[in-house]
Write a structure and sequence with these properties.
The chain is an alpha+beta fold. Helices cover 48% and strands 21% of the residues. β2 and β3 form a beta hairpin.
């Protein structure tokens, strides 16, 4: 029986309270472990299956994963605007 969202799910949802969308890599930070990567990935999959978030994958150079609010439509064309917004907000 679930007791509610886990630590990583809460982290993702709190980021979406601030940003409409962000890159999965932002959650990892520098020097992340494989265990942290896998835990965050499981949280993303669970939230997406529950319909609480949207996920977009694209590969142009490096593979990127964008996490966005479920109620917005995020397309691959929006990624440039996302990169600019994140660069301004997180110096």
């Amino acid at each position: 029986m679930s007791k509610g969202p886990g630590t990583h799910q809460r982290l993702i949802l709190s980021e979406l309270a601030v940003w409409d969308a962000f890159y999965f890599d932002h959650l990892l930070g520098r020097g992340y472990t494989k265990a942290r990567y896998n835990a965050l990935l499981r949280a993303v999959v669970k939230l997406e299956k529950a319909g609480k978030i949207g996920v977009l994958h694209f590969a142009f150079g490096n593979r990127k994963t964008v996490i966005h609010r479920a109620e917005i439509s995020f397309t691959k064309e929006d990624r440039r605007a996302l990169r600019r917004a994140l660069d301004r907000g997180r110096a």
